[in-house]
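Database export, one record per block. Field names are fixed; values are copied verbatim from the stored entry.
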Amino acid sequence: MSDTAPSPTIRATPEAASRQRLKLYISMTVGALVITAVVVVILLVTGGSSDTRHNIVGTVILNESAGRFRLSHCEGSGGDGDLTSSAPVSVRDGQGRLLATSRLGPGKTSSHSECTFTCVVRNVADATTYAIKVSHRAVISRSRGDLQLSEWTVTMAVGH
């Protein structure tokens, strides 16, 4: 004979099982609603935009009257002396927030009368409008749509 008595079996009534399922369904529904609310708040805060990034390719074309030309390279002179390799390039959004920076590459003689500088401004955050500035020059403003149509390229002519 054993000293331990058999443990009684406890069975849930159909009503108790039904209440358990109802609690589970309510918990799952509340959890789904909380997750949905968090997603909606994130979309509202970020404006619903994804973290899309762009590379903007810029070209500055300097004519001969505004620059010094050599066979291997060229650069601005006089009032255009700021147009040299490594001149700063900045991109801001419509509210003036800095999105990205870069520098002009070396000037290359593209014809007997033009010097061409290029740069790539990488990883530019998505915005509605963009303000692009080379050195201390005037800002070039473009909308997202305009840049998309131009395949994210911008050209600035100096001395033309």
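Remark 1: The chain has a mean pLDDT of 80.
Remark 2: The longest strand covers residues 114-125.
End of record.
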